[in-house]
């Protein structure tokens, strides 16, 4: 990693959008065991204070799942931005469900490929294949056939995961939405993320005059890079120290 790609430090006047898995928390084989890097919870809370509250964790995770893993003093945007939880808000009573044909189709597909697992996030479904990466291509092709037959749904590829999500579940749309409200409005948006779903968010922050930080390897719209969740935490810490 060269110095040229090290991002400018977070500072007052910005609005920070931070992805969770792979950005604030190291990836794990089991999504249930994932946690913020050590020390990140108080760090995020202090940084949010410094930004007058304009800090959101934005994730593909179910909103209640995300809310269990990050401080409740932060904005939390779950299900790829479909659900928005303001600071202090408690768990949602959610009744949303993906269409039955989608649930049945992906559950059936998972049964054909031992090692895969369907994560049910209400309207969004994730088919995990971290335990059998050799089947990724076949699973993607089969999942596309199932998802493309359901109106209003599309496939979102990610790290060892294939998700079926409604068209409104898009990190870019969510960022545009919250940037219209306080405490975000009028600030320079900055986003850090590691996966394909974050590219929608990157496109939005760039369009709104901000900048994006890609975590790890891979093609990206982002002009800046950090190597790992620990490097992200160090960058945020430096921003507070400034
Ligand atoms: O937007 P994110 O916060 O990055 O969430 C994206 C997905 O993260 C989770 O899956 C990913 O992380 C798991 C835990 O490290 C890993 O096992 C899996 O292979 C990754 O795809 C989460 O389970 C999904 O619901 C999120 O959409």
TrEMBL record:
**A biological process (GO) annotation for this entry?**
trehalose biosynthetic process
> What Gene3D superfamilies does the entry give?
HAD superfamily/HAD-like, Trehalose-6-phosphate phosphatase related protein, domain 2
A single Pfam family it belongs to is Trehalose_PPase
Q: In which pathway does it act?
A: Glycan biosynthesis; trehalose biosynthesis
The protein's annotated catalytic reaction(s) are: alpha,alpha-trehalose 6-phosphate + H2O = alpha,alpha-trehalose + phosphate
Q: Which InterPro entries match?
A: HAD-like_sf (IPR036412), HAD-SF_hydro_IIB (IPR006379), HAD_sf (IPR023214), OTSB-like (IPR044651), Trehalose_PPase (IPR003337)
Alphabetized UniProt keyword annotations = Hydrolase, Magnesium, Metal-binding
The reply on keyword Repeat is: no
Which of the seven top EC classes does this enzyme belong to?
Answer: hydrolase
Q: Name one GO molecular function term.
A: trehalose-phosphatase activity
- In Swiss-Prot or TrEMBL terms, this protein is called Trehalose 6-phosphate phosphatase
């Amino acid at each position: 990693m060269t110095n040229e790609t090290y991002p400018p430090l977070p500072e007052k006047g910005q609005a920070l959008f931070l992805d969770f898995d792979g950005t604030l928390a190291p990836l794990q084989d089991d999504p249930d065991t994932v946690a913020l890097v050590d020390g990140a919870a108080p760090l995020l809370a202090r940084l949010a204070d410094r930004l007058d509250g304009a800090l959101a964790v934005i994730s593909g995770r179910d909103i209640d799942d995300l809310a269990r893993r990050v401080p409740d003093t932060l904005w939390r945007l779950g299900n790829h931005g479909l659900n928005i939880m303001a600071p202090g808000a408690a768990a949602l009573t959610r009744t949303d469900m993906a269409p039955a044909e989608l649930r049945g189709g992906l559950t059936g597909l998972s049964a054909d490929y031992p090692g895969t697992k369907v994560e049910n996030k209400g309207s969004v479904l994730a088919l995990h294949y971290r335990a059998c990466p050799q089947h990724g291509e076949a699973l993607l092709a089969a999942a596309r056939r199932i998802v493309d037959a359901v109106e209003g749904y599309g496939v979102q590829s990610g790290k060892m995961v294939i998700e079926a999500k409604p068209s409104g579940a898009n990190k870019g749309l969510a960022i545009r939405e919250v940037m219209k409200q306080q405490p975000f409005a009028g600030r320079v948006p900055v986003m850090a993320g590691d996966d394909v779903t974050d590219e929608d968010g990157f496109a939005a922050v760039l369009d709104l005059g901000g900048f994006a930080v890609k975590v790890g390897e891979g093609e990206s719209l982002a002009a800046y890079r950090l190597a790992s969740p620990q490097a992200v935490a160090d960058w945020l810490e430096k921003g507070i120290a400034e």
